[in-house]
């Protein structure tokens, strides 16, 4: 049984991780790299330069006017945010060669999706102890629930953030993140498989609890990255997560049901 | 969870636990429990290493993944 669990999770996790890496490379990575040019100060939000290409479209008067407006608009938040900001700066990853950096991303995406896959399969095995047989179709639902637990619900309080975004204390955010993931997974399991009204109500309470408590929030807003960029990043990060988790759940359920049939 | 599963009066247990559990031998469910625990710890460790460990080296290496998968970063 252990071997079946491990091989199924490994195959499903690696495939889903590679799929996530492909999506990340085309949809998300360009936004991260662009945001780091704002974080390093190479590009300045409100200076009339939205990106390298956009700079060419601006005429001179326009640029000057934008820059003048920018000094007023950014002076205050920049001063406020700068203190909280300095330690957010990430020199190391900015200096890593792109190839090494992308290889590390592929490797760690495979690792984290194998981790998610192992947790899913452990859940399948618990379900089997209760006589519930998980197939590819049910695995897809488990994958969507996993996405909700590990990405969507934590994103309600802690939106996926680009480099250069101020945030509250790291440890406090990690505690809230882990608590939210566990509460959401437990809540969905109770609603999905609970047979009594009490189980469903308890599940709903578990789903709501982290957001009633609330996530740790930064003392002040002072991001250097344009909001358009941050919004696009958050939406795409969640979309990549949804697609990859759906594939992971389906594959894990498929391998799991094959394993069960052959033993 | 384990206690619920091997409850001696399985037939009179609440409806949601009354499944095939009574047909499982104690030995089989014992090894299944160990396998589930092992896989859970392994999976949680992988997720922790990638997303949550506050080591500078790990943080830098997994940096982009942490941002995209929505882990708290920095």
Describe the structure.
- The complex is a heterodimer of chains A (263) and B (74).
- Chain A has 263 residues and is an all-alpha fold.
- Chain A has one domain (2-167, 218-262).
- Helices cover 78% and strands 0% of the residues of chain A.
- Chain A has helices at 2-39, 52-57, 60-85, 91-95, 98-129, 136-157, 170-193, 197-213, 227-262.
- In chain A, helix 1 (2-39) runs antiparallel to helix 9 (227-262) and helix 5 crosses helix 9.
- Chain A starts with a helix and ends with a helix.
- Chain B has 74 residues and is mostly helical.
- Chain B has a domain at 25-74.
- Chain B has 4 helices and no strands.
- Chain B has helices at 2-5, 26-51, 56-61, 63-68.
- The two termini of chain B are 37 Å apart.
- The chains are: A mainly alpha (263), B mainly alpha (74).
- Chains A and B meet through helix 1, helix 5, helix 6, helix 7 and helix 9 of A and helix 2, helix 3 and helix 4 of B.
